[in-house]
Design brief:
The chain is an alpha/beta fold and 240 residues long. Helix 5 packs parallel to helix 9 and helix 7 (167-179) runs parallel beside helix 8. The chain has helices spanning 3-12, 23-26, 52-57, 59-75, 80-92, 106-109, 167-179, 195-204, 231-239; strands spanning 16-20, 96-100, 115-117, 120-127, 133-135, 154-158, 182-186, 208-212, 225-227. Strands 3-2-1-7-8-9 form a 6-stranded parallel beta sheet, sandwiched between helices. A 3-stranded antiparallel beta sheet has the order 5-4-6, with helices on one face. The chain is elongated, with a radius of gyration of 18 Å. The chain has 2 domains: 3-29 and 78-119 and 165-239, TPP-binding domain (Rossmann fold), CATH 3.40.50.1220; 39-75 and 125-158, SIR2/SIRT2 'Small Domain' (2-Layer Sandwich). Helices cover 36% and strands 18% of the residues. Bound molecules: nicotinamide-adenine-dinucleotide (NAD).
């Protein structure tokens, strides 16, 4: 398949499913998970900060790290890639579905609504007793670890190493990828579940699956077409 054919397939498709990863937020200046560990944090492996045992050992330290990432995403702005996907949703309406592995909240800020955040987000926290989710206080008022309106300690509302993805979000994504005509896989290395699974399930069901990534990934040889571009440029070319 070439770019013109990929563009035509996307234009005529009534059902479009999109999966995004850290790459789509790179142009907003948000570093990847591993790059996010600068300064003091460079001494820690992600697994030592973003896991249930790490939190059980030192909740204050884990919260300090998440509070830093929270401030960082609030200071960032959605980029053209996020905006183009919000525009595609307006065009396709109910046939559109976006699943993101990102926790930065930028898709929602760009206007995406038919969206599931498979790994949670940095802007909210979860009551450790009731499981309810509450927005975090503004950074200058944030006390860590935060307390819910119920008076219980809250944990970051993100999926940690060793944890399962929220079942309803994953199921909605699987349905969308099973039934779409075109799937876009944007800015994800595609090695970890569920990225690879969703892309391959869409392929198996006969969808046209298009990857946008400046680098080749393990998925590249398995998909219909790959655009070797940054997210914003690749989406602009596909939607032109
Ligand atoms: N912004 C965020 O919320 C954020 C940031 C870092 C990590 N994470 C978490 O870490 C995990 C990492 O997995 P992942 O696959 O999302 O990311 P990853 O870091 O494994 O892969 C990022 C991919 O993006 C590509 N990329 C880099 N710049 C790009 C650009 N401008 N446009 C398009 N693609 C670009 C890279 O080639 C790479 O394949 C995710 O589960 C996610 O929850 C989230």
């Amino acid at each position: 398949m070439n770019l013109a054919e990929a563009r035509a397939a996307l234009k005529t498709a009534k059902r479009v499913a999109v999966l995004t990863g850290a790459g789509i937020s790179a142009e907003s200046g948000i570093p990847t998970f591993r790059d996010a560990q600068t300064g003091h944090w460079a001494r820690f492996r992600p697994e030592d900060l973003a896991s249930p045992p790490a939190y059980a050992r030192d909740p204050e330290m884990v919260w300090e790290w998440y509070a830093g990432r929270y401030r960082e995403v609030l200071n960032a702005q959605p980029n053209e890639g996020h905006r183009l996907l919000a525009g595609l949703e307006r065009e396709k309406g109910e046939g559109f579905f976006l699943a993101t592995q990102n926790v930065d909240g930028l898709h929602a800020r760009a206007g995406s609504k038919r969206l599931v955040e498979l790994h949670g987000n940095l802007l909210s926290a979860r009551d450790e007793k009731t499981g309810e989710i509450f927005p975090l206080a503004a950074p200058n008022a944030l006390q860590t670890p935060p307390t819910s309106p119920n008076g219980n300690r809250m944990r970051p509302n993100v999926v940690w190493f060793g944890e399962f993805l929220p079942e309803d979000a994953l199921e909605a994504a699987q349905n969308a990828f099973h039934t779409c005509e075109v799937a876009l896989i944007v800015g994800t290395s595609g090695v970890v579940y569920p990225a690879a699974g969703l892309a391959l399930e869409a392929m198996a069901e006969g969808a046209v699956v298009i990857e946008i990534n400046p680098d080749a990934t393990e998925l590249t040889p398995l998909l219909t077409f790959s655009l070797r571009e940054k997210a914003s440029a690749g989406l602009a070319q596909l939607l032109a």
